Amino acid sequence: MRTKPAAVVVYGATGHTGRFVVAELRRRGFATVLSGRDAARLEALAAERADVDADVEADVVVRPATVDDPASLDRALAGAAAVVNCAGPFALTAGPLVEAALRAGIPYVDVAAEIEANAAMFADYAQAARRAGTPVLPAMAFYGGLGDLLVTALLGERTTADVVHVAYGLSSWHPTPGTREAGAVSHRRRAGRRVRFADGALRYHDDPVARQDWHFPQPLGRRAVIAEFTMADVVTVPSHLAVPEVRTYMSVEAAGDLAGQDTPAPEPVDALGRSDQTFVVDVLVDAGGVERRATARGRDIYAVTAPLVVEAVERILDGRTRTAGVASAGAMFDAADFLRALAPHVSVDLPH
Ligand SMILES: NC(=O)c1ccc[n+]([C@@H]2O[C@H](COP(=O)([O-])OP(=O)(O)OC[C@H]3O[C@@H](n4cnc5c(N)ncnc54)[C@H](OP(=O)(O)O)[C@@H]3O)[C@@H](O)[C@H]2O)c1
């Protein structure tokens, strides 16, 4: 039996996603260190949690830290069991946070959906993390994590496929400031070019944005999608599976919302603070001439990131992992078992 971890640090705790992650950690009885760059906002969140979590025994503490001050990050992580990084743009925060985690010898998990930042995690920290035996899990979130788990579960014992398609059927997408900022950073990093994963590598291109129809399972049915709308799955899936083509698609409604300058941030409409956004993630894998399909459904891509990331932390701390070092969700966990554990937040259709 694992003794209760001292604490899980959430960096970027006061952000939209960070707050969902803190709530999920508290719901599961974890002690929580609220960290980030704004001490006053962290204190306000701690006060709020003290009211909400009156019956949770484990502590909430506040430890402000900035990514340009490694000593402050070391203080934030001292004595903790793991750190979850929810502060984007990850181009700025992921390096300093993973280095602090490696110094502290504790697992690092992030929710980054920035393709170049995700790829840099594998390229820059694989050796150090392996040598330290420390789990480092990038993109453990709706984008990057969920799709990778679905693909891995579909393939079972197989480690190769010819083509993977991941189609995102979002009813809408009201982006947070962090999402917009991450998009802007990625856009600048690519000098305005677009990116896709083809012939076994990330390829930058200037092809025009194209639309096609995607046949989602009922009740969604046929919908127009942007093809390709490249998401973090193009890093996570090929990080551990031999797949030369990973293609991702986005419903045109959601892509339009994201592009709109006036689209508002998400509004909570239920007791859990979730918005009314619904999602379907439809995965098609073509392997050796056999097509397999898995679908996940749920509500609010930001809120659902919390059970994904906290389930991952819990499994890492329990030793329910398949590998150490830098790894994606599909490589690190028993994918089918992980997906089952996401109920009721995510309902998954996997072939038997
Ligand atoms: N992969 C996925 O599916 C997925 C899901 C959810 C979120 N995300 C990503 O997670 C990030 C956060 O999203 P969000 O929805 O929580 O956005 P948000 O509500 O705007 O929050 C952003 C958080 O990041 C912090 N932050 C930004 N720059 C920072 C810096 N240089 N140093 C320290 N902290 C910094 C902010 O701190 P302040 O309050 O001090 O500004 C805030 O806490 C975004 O990059 C988003 O794309 C990805």
Summarize the structure in words.
There is one protein chain. 37% of the residues lie in helices and 23% in strands. It has 352 residues and is α/β, with parallel strands linked by helices. The relative contact order is 0.16. Helix 3 (70-77) crosses helix 4 (90-104) and helix 4 (90-104) packs parallel to helix 5 (115-132). It contains 12 helices and 15 strands. The model has no long low-confidence stretch (mean pLDDT 96). The site of NADP nicotinamide-adenine-dinucleotide phosphate (NAP) has 33 residues, from helix 1, helix 4, helix 6 and helix 7. NADP nicotinamide-adenine-dinucleotide phosphate (NAP) binds next to helix 1, helix 4, helix 6 and helix 7.
Supply the number of helical segments.
12
Strand content: 15-25%
Q: Number of domains in the coordinates?
A: 2
Could you name the CATH topology of the largest domain? Answer: Rossmann fold
**Distance N to C terminus:** 32 Å
Nearest-angstrom radius of gyration? 19 Å
User: The biggest beta sheet, please?
Assistant: 7 strands, mixed
- CATH class of the largest domain, named Alpha Beta
**Shape, please?**
globular
Residue-averaged pLDDT, rounded? 96
Classify the secondary structure makeup into a structural class.
Answer: alpha/beta
Q: Which percent range fits the helix content?
A: 25-40%
Provide the CATH architecture of the largest domain: 3-Layer(aba) Sandwich
Lateral arrangement of strands in the main beta sheet:
10-11-12-7-13-14-15
Q: What's the β-strand tally?
A: 15
Notable characteristics:
352 residues, Rossmann fold, Dihydrodipicolinate Reductase, domain 2, 2 domains, binds NADP nicotinamide-adenine-dinucleotide phosphate
